[in-house]
Write a structure and sequence with these properties.
five-stranded mixed sheet; Restriction Endonuclease; about 35% helix; 10 helices; alpha+beta
Length: about 350
């Protein structure tokens, strides 16, 4: 299918679209010339057209082959036009793109170029689903076809997320990164060793005094899908410092990193102490047996080799808080995208 379709209006109710070349040789070619039309009686019947043979002139231009009036054919006379399977497939795909353009935009005045890209594929599919008759066509798809669609969708989501990372590595807004994690909370399922789903964002963890002040709010509460026990997640930024100054052959831990760890430990403590009070006011049940904690902070690529060793020593001895940097998080995303994109993985779907 063409990446772009040029449409030129010929009246308020009709438009000529680009020819669909079905077969082309050195001197001759066969094409279908489609036209968009407004059909008040049958709105879905919005495309008509004709097959045309063309000959190449010495100038290199193509001329329509003159065919006589078919109504003058005598008995036993006729014309046979055979299309190969690939040509039929190409014709149907190209016509579908024109139906989609007409359904969304109708007849637009002048000459317009419509580009079918990953950005608007979703809109095209949405238009297809608006017609109930198309649902029967989807039912006829084989299981491996549907699985491929799902894989391609997942790859597209991963690529979009990686683009967000590439464009925002130096973004120092906590609210921005909280929004990224909230919108793509499945991202953290790659990090936790158990199946988790987003339970609450900006969740109250307890700690208010008699003046209704001093309460603790965490960025996210995730929940194990099988046990219902929660996991606490705090989000800093990739620009947050991981280490401080050099100190006697090693490096001190930055205020942002040590503060983030203590913040999580405090939230965990308050949640456990006030669990029954909080759950009594909650519509959903959850458990808090020694909840796991995760801090997303900083960027390893900003550290030298000696600094990485100091950071790793601190992280590996932080038994109650799991620390992961942004570049590590998105490296896992890259690995998943590459795995799904491998040809053996796609072919493996056919064997199920």
């Amino acid at each position: 299918m063409s990446d772009a379709v040029v449409v030129k209006s010929t009246s308020r109710t009709s438009a000529q679209t680009e020819d669909i070349v079905l077969r082309e040789g050195e001197k001759t070619r066969l094409l279908f010339r489609p036209m968009m039309v407004v059909n008040p009686k049958e709105p879905k019947h919005s495309i008509k057209g004709c097959f045309i043979f063309q000959k190449k002139k010495t100038s290199g231009n193509w001329d329509d082959y003159k065919v006589g009036d078919l109504t003058t054919l005598k008995d036993a006379e006729g014309i046979k036009l055979e299309l190969h399977s690939a040509e039929v497939y190409n014709l149907l795909n190209e016509l579908n793109s024109r139906y989609s353009i007409f359904d969304k935009y109708g007849i637009k005045f002048g000459t317009n170029k419509f580009v079918l890209t990953p950005d608007n594929v979703e809109e095209v599919i949405e238009q297809l689903l608006k017609d109930p008759s198309n649902l029967e066509k989807f039912k006829s798809l084989k299981r491996e076809d549907l699985e491929k669609i799902n894989v391609v969708t997942n790859i597209s989501n991963l690529e979009s997320l990686l683009q967000v990372w590439e464009k925002n590595k130096t973004n120092s807004s906590e609210s921005f990164w909280q929004g990224v994690i909230k919108d793509d909370s499945w991202l953290l399922s790659q990090v936790f060793s158990t199946p988790v789903v987003l339970f609450k964002d900006e969740a109250y963890m307890g700690g208010k005094n008699v003046d209704n002040k001093g309460g603790s709010i965490t960025d996210f509460l995730f929940k194990n899908k099988l046990t219902d026990h929660v996991l606490i997640v705090e989000v800093k930024t990739p620009e947050a410092d991981l280490l401080g100054t050099a100190y006697r052959g090693t490096y001190s831990i930055s205020a942002e990193l040590s503060g983030g760890v203590n913040q999580l430990l405090q939230q965990k403590d308050k949640l456990q102490k006030e669990f029954y009070t909080i759950t009594g006011k909650s519509d959903e049940s959850f458990g808090v047996i020694n909840p796991r904690c995760m801090l997303i902070v900083g960027n390893l690529n900003k550290l030298g080799n000696g600094e990485r060793d100091s950071f790793e020593l601190f992280r590996r001895n932080s038994k109650d808080v799991e620390i992961i940097t942004y570049d590590e998080l998105f490296a896992k995303t890259e690995m998943l995208k590459n795995l799904l994109s491998q040809e053996p993985f796609i072919k493996g779907l056919k064997k199920k």
